[in-house]
Write a structure and sequence with these properties.
It comes from Acidovorax carolinensis. This is Homoserine kinase. InterPro entries: Aminoglycoside_PTrfase, Homoserine_kinase_II, Kinase-like_dom_sf, Pseudomonas-type_ThrB. This protein is of the alpha+beta class. It has 2 domains: about 10-100, Phosphorylase Kinase, domain 1; about 115-310, Aminoglycoside 3'-phosphotransferase, Chain: A, domain 2, CATH 3.90.1200. Helix content is about 45%, strand content about 15%. The protein contains 10 helices and 9 strands. Strand 1 (about 25-30) and strand 2 form a beta hairpin. Helix 3 runs parallel beside helix 8 and helix 4 packs antiparallel against helix 5 (about 160-175). The structure holds adenosine-5'-diphosphate and the ligand N[C@@H](CCOP(=O)(O)O)C(=O)O.
């Protein structure tokens, strides 16, 4: 589990009292996750998730928390941050910024079928629409400027073939970002990390999604590309799965058809999505943080995905 900060039962009990969420029944550190400290909090009023933010600051966090609130109130199945008696949804626990949200029903579908990919496509398009009238703005903090900053930090740790690919792809993505087709892409608040482990299912029913802490204002196409790169590939090889991808794309487009610029740039954004997670995984792997039982994700996976998307471009 990724528990960077240990929370005592007394601290958890005090927090539940401040939020008027009842008396503590159980407190359990959560396995999975690599960014924040997460606990399941059970009280006599229900089940909640407590997150202590390890990297994000109190200035950055309102965007994510109010986005979740906005989407939840817009009918999307996302966790709704709980306020204290003053109406504040950003709290402090163990000296760290923290939030408490409702625990979603269901479990991750780690071997998705076309029906699951279609459900994700539908939800993603609806989330994009629901986010259009969200009035806060914060860029994707793991977007192109972060890639440009972080690539030089990881380059000394990797081999010459990888370094050549990383440099070349970064140059290509800077070129794409400067194009008129890119400027024409529709954008808004995006999740930007909607992987298999961030969506809940009950059988074939999608019951919700969480982990909005990489969200930001970016192109909707980038968000879709991140999903296609995780839900619609063969995990061992990184190979694109055309059947699952067609299910996701058709379902997405039934809610919001892609524009001409989006269709043109889908191959480039699939590469961008792979590059983004290759860089972050390299960064987490070679510059790790202290946490109990933190398991870094394998960077080589996204190197394979990137090479695959370059060798075999995928069109909508
Ligand atoms: N609202 C929620 N409802 C149910 N489970 C959740 C919720 N939020 C987090 N979890 C559980 O916690 C785990 C880690 O959460 P995640 O947000 O992915 O962590 P991190 O931000 O550290 O990557 C998830 O895999 C999931 O099992
Ligand atoms: N999904 C990303 C990293 C973020 O991890 P998460 O547990 O917060 O989803 C990856 O797989 O590299």
């Amino acid at each position: 589990m990724a528990v960077f900060t240990e929370v005592s039962t007394n601290e958890a009990r005090d927090l539940l009292r401040r939020l008027q969420l009842g008396d503590l029944v159980a407190l359990r550190g959560i396995e999975g996750g690599i960014e924040n400290t997460n606990y399941f909090l059970t009280s006599d009023q229900g089940e909640f998730v407590l997150t202590l933010f390890e990297r994000l600051t109190a200035e950055q966090l309102p965007f994510y928390l109010y986005l979740m609130k906005h989407l939840a109130h817009g009918g999307m199945p996302v966790p709704d941050p709980r306020p204290d008696q003053n109406g504040d949804i950003l709290h402090t626990v163990c000296g760290k910024p923290a939030a408490v949200v409702n625990k979603l029903r269901g479990k991750s579908q780690l071997a998705p079928q076309p029906v699951h990919c279609a459900a994700v496509g539908t939800m993603l398009a609806r989330m994009h629409r629901a986010g259009r009238d969200f009035d806060r703005h914060q860029p994707n903090l793991r977007g192109l400027p972060w890639w440009n900053e972080t690539v030089p930090v990881v380059l000394p740790h990797i081999g010459p073939e990888q370094a050549a690919l990383l440099r070349a792809e970064l140059a290509y993505q800077n070129h794409v970002a400067a194009s008129s087709a890119y400027a024409a892409l529709p954008r808004g608040p995006v999740h930007a990390d909607l992987f298999r482990d961030n969506v809940m299912f009950d059988g074939e029913e999608l019951t919700g999604c969480f982990d909005f802490y990489f969200a930001g204002v970016d192109t909707w196409l980038f968000d879709l590309a991140v999903c296609l790169n995780d839900w619609c590939i063969d995990l061992p090889t990184g190979a694109h799965d055309a059947t699952r991808a067609a299910s996701m794309l058709d379902a997405y487009q039934a809610e919001r058809p892609l524009t001409a610029a989006e269709r043109e740039l889908l191959p480039a954004m699939l590469r961008a999505g792979a590059l983004r997670f290759w860089i972050s995984r390299l960064w987490d792997f070679y510059l790790p943080r202290e946490a109990s039982m933190l398991v870094p994700h394998d960077p080589a996976h996204f190197e394979r995905v990137l090479r695959g998307r370059i060798a075999h471009p995928v069109h909508a």
